[in-house]
Amino acid sequence: MAMRADDLIDRRRLRRKLTFWRVAAFVVLAAAVIAFSTWFYDDNFTGSAVPHIAKVKIEGTITEDEELLKRLEAIRTSPEVKGVILSIDSPGGTTVGGESIFEAVRKLAGDKPVVAEVGTLAASAGYMIASAADHIVARKTSIVGSIGVLIQYPDVSGLMDKLGIKLEEVKSSPLKASPSPFKPTNDDERAMVRKLILDSYDWFVGIVADRRKMTYDQALALADGSIFTGRQALANHLVDAVGGEQEAIDWLATKGVDGKLKVVEWKDKDRHGGFLFSQSMAKVAAKALGLPDAGGDVIHELGADRLFLDGLVSVWHP
């Protein structure tokens, strides 16, 4: 009888263990299915297998973005994309970053109608990108403009003097590695930097004049760094209409795009790694932990990415 009782206890223990592992396996499988579904249906930037209007968000500080360029090219070659909405909310960024995206949007516009929808802000390089679209829609209170280029650099020479730090250097020529944060700039250095800025500025103004059907002088008059509300931008011909996504869709309809097509956002599926760590899964995890929305990198969310801009920048407030 003792042996039978022991056997009974062992069997119950075994059943409990089996039940535990079955439940654990089911939970893991369910989590994998959910993660895969989220990745495939939400984070897969290839959009939809049926005709649709593609939407691309361009947000935050603009830098050289190879993934975005590839995404725009994929949209251009997709037979299911009938029109494109660029949703822009950016203070600008590097001039090269704006230039590369501008060129990609112009290439895209050669095959499909493209409309820019300005949210809160499309300034400097953000406006540069918006101007690449065939039509620009902005809210009445959106901020638009800040057409221009700048270079900023610190001067810590006073701090070095206070700390008793001296810098010695041997240069091949007077303008090598200038301007430098370790000493005040001289007239020759400032003149060199100004020529650099004015050349890119001239190119930027030329883009605005060409895309907005203005004379160069008309564009130059608006390119003093000023920002405008959406209503002011409309009066100055920097945008074509006031409104939001519906107005953007309405314009696409005038270009032969069915206004009843679904708008599908093409996203960056790789921003946060593989599908188990997709953008949507990161958001869920962040909410569970009581953290801010994890839709972007921490540095991006804090705005600290602007601290690392280098070279010529076209940005409202670096």
Automatic annotation (TrEMBL):
Q: What are the alphabetically sorted keywords of the record?
A: Hydrolase, Membrane, Protease, Serine protease, Transmembrane, Transmembrane helix
Does this entry carry the keyword Membrane? yes
Q: Which InterPro entries match?
A: ClpP/crotonase-like_dom_sf, Pept_S49_SppA, Peptidase_S49, S49_SppA_C
Q: Which CDD domains match?
A: S49_Sppa_N_C
Any idea where the Peptidase S49 domain is?
110-254
Q: Which GO-annotated molecular functions does the record name?
A: serine-type peptidase activity
Gene3D superfamilies annotated for this entry?
A: 2-enoyl-CoA Hydratase, Chain A, domain 1, 6.20.330.10
The residue ranges crossing the membrane are: 20-41
> Is Ligase one of the keywords UniProt gives this record?
no
Biological process per Gene Ontology, one example term: proteolysis
Superkingdom of origin: Bacteria
Instruction: Describe the family membership recorded for this protein in Swiss-Prot or TrEMBL.
Output: Belongs to the peptidase S49 family.
Kindly provide the name given to this protein in its UniProt entry: Signal peptide peptidase SppA
Query: Organism, per UniProt?
Result: Mesorhizobium hawassense
Q: What is the lineage of its organism?
A: Bacteria, Pseudomonadati, Pseudomonadota, Alphaproteobacteria, Hyphomicrobiales
Gene encoding this polypeptide? sppA
